[in-house]
Design brief:
Elements lengths: L1 H4 L17 H17 L4 H4 L2 H26 L1 H21 L66 H13 L8 H9 L4 H15 L4 H29 L4 H6 L30 H17 L6 E4 L5 E4 L3 H13 L5 H21 L8
Antiparallel strand pairs: 1-2
Helix pairs in contact: 2-4, 2-5, 4-5, 7-12, 8-9, 9-11, 9-13, 11-12, 11-13, 12-13
């Protein structure tokens, strides 16, 4: 989009396209080509059956064809041809840039049996885990897109096990996050709503918001690039943070609470969270790293003032907010009510995501004044 419309520093150098090129055709082609390239990379070729993978690729081709057909009617055949060329060039540049970037590597989180150390799923020991380790732990070692390193935004970590702060957080999640907790209607609504994949949910929600604000296609592309660059680097730094602190989840902590060295924490070997515990460490919360990055991008782009923003769940249910930052207040609480994070992990995640988003805002896609 930027190779056609100009106005901003490019993320990667690609040839300039004619200003008359179809932006819609460029966007559709770039999206299609990147997605298909990723689907054709190992090990994703083994993740789906050949039939399912081909069905996805065929669906992407249909979506691209529909977009190209609409663009041809709106912009003309010559403009569409130029747009397709621009999209192909941008996609090829991105695929080449990310070759060998560490995706799908061998890194896995380390299980430990000392108090405070992470153990997978429902296991309390490392030798006989009752659940899988994180198959996406390799994200911690992926080369970032914009930030300078995987460790640039490491959090301050969890509170000391023998501290009053830890005991307070322990009691909070034990009381409100158990499967049989007596949560309020509002608390349970957060439990249910914020189980959806945040990337998909926030992308859909901001597409609607951007259209309502009248952003043209090029500005929408820049906004989505900021969202996805920031959230990708937030994920990478977040998973490195998990690897660095390797802290236990509430499920392990509460079942072993009698042995953590804190006299204010009462253990319960049968405690079960409201939703299944993910197979990776507590600090920092990935959901909140993502939420912090998205909402900080929104605030730096649209401003910090009052607005009407709706987060749209895949089921169509909406939660409406007056400030973007109000969303992370809910996602912090949601992960506690779900029983899968201590509050510090959630708050650290938001701050990590916000820090990454501010860095991306200051170091990528800067205006050049020539649009």
């Amino acid at each position: 989009m930027n190779s056609i419309a100009g106005g901003y520093e490019p993320y990667l150098d690609v040839p300039a396209a004619p200003a008359t090129a179809s932006q819609a055709a460029a966007a559709a082609t770039a999206a299609h080509d990147v997605l298909v390239a990723v689907l054709n990379q190992t090990p994703l070729t083994a993740t789906f059956t050949a039939t399912v993978r081909q069905a996805i690729i065929d669906r992407l081709a249909d979506l691209e064809d529909d977009s190209i057909a609409a663009a041809t009617v709106a912009d003309g055949a010559t403009a569409v041809a130029d747009g397709i060329d621009a999209g192909e060039a941008a996609a090829a540049a991105m695929v080449a840039e990310r070759a060998g970037d560490g995706r799908w590597g061998a890194f896995r989180f380390t299980c430990g049996e000392e108090p405070g150390q992470w153990r997978p799923a429902t296991s309390t020991v490392c030798t006989t885990p009752s659940g899988p380790s994180d198959p996406f732990a390799w994200v911690a070692k992926v080369v970032p897109f914009v930030v300078e390193s995987n460790e640039q935004f490491l959090s301050k970590g969890p509170p000391a096990l023998n501290s009053g702060a830890y005991a307070k957080e322990y009691d909070e999640v034990k009381t409100l996050g158990a499967a049989d907790s007596q949560r309020t209607t509002g608390q349970q609504a957060l439990v249910d709503f914020f189980q959806a994949n945040p990337v998909e949910m926030y992308n859909r929600s901001f597409r609607t918001y951007a259209l309502g604000r009248g952003l043209d296609l090029a500005e929408q592309a820049r906004l989505y690039a900021k969202f996805t660059l920031a959230s990708a680097d937030a994920f990478i730094n977040c998973w490195e943070d998990k690897a660095h602190w390797s802290s236990w989840r509430p499920l392990t902590a509460i079942r072993l609470g009698a042995d953590d060295g804190n006299r204010k924490t009462d253990g319960d070997p049968d405690w079960t969270p409201a939703i299944p515990t993910p197979p990776y460490p507590d600090v920092s919360s990935g959901y909140n790293c993502t939420t912090g990055s998205y909402m900080e991008v929104a605030e730096t782009y649209f401003g910090h003032g009052r607005t009407t923003f709706a987060v749209v769940h895949p089921t169509g249910i909406m939660r409406t907010y007056e400030h973007f930052r109000d969303v992370w207040d809910d996602t912090i609480d949601a992960r506690i009510y779900q029983g899968i994070h201590f509050r510090t992990a959630d708050e650290n995640g938001v701050q990590l995501g916000r820090g990454v988003a501010r860095w991306v805002d200051q170091h990528a896609l800067q205006p050049t004044g020539n649009r």
